[in-house]
Structure formats: C-alpha cells, structure tokens
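Let's practice the habit of predicting before peeking. Look at the sequence and jot down your guess about where helices and strands might fall. Then scroll down.
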Amino acid sequence: MSLAPFGKDVISQSELTGKSTAGGTVFVFIANLIWFPVGITLATMHVLHGALMFCTIIGIPFALQDFKLAGISLFPVGKRVVSLELVTVARATNAQAELDRLRGR
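Done guessing? Here is the structure:
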C-alpha cells in the first residue's frame, strides 16, 4: 500500500469474502489488540505527515493516502488491500445481499 497507494483501497477480509467465522473474529481481535501500541504510533506519524503534506498543492493526494494509511495502521489484521473496482463490487454485492435479506427473499 505504501509503494503504490493510488487506485487501491482497504477492505476487511470478511466483507470481501462475505464469510465470517467466530474463531477468525476472535483471532483478529486479539492480534489487533497486540498490534495496537505499534499501530497508534504509526497512525500518529501518518496523520502528522499528512498534515504537513497538505501545505502544498502537490502534496494533497499524498496526504489523502497518508490518512488512508493511518486508518489501516491502527488495526491491520483482517484487512486486505485490493483495487478500487474490487472494493466497489464487493460492497455492492454485500449491499444487495442485505437488501434481499431485509425483503425476505
């Protein structure tokens, strides 16, 4: 994500696959809890760097990517970096499945 951040987004593994297991959820929670002290440091650095990048016109797109990286730095376990198109399709599919469930189909 740091090397080629443009055209990519972060999505949770369960949202991408449409499957969630209780054991996997517990593992992800514990791993993210262990990672949190390191993640808060990384996220703070990304936010500060992004704020500095906003000072120039050229730096604004990079600042937006820094803010995206700050979000994934906090809780990275259970997340995947994929193309924007794949994220759009996965979220649309999940939204359609939720709509069908609410309609009782």
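How did you do? The chain has a mean pLDDT of 88.
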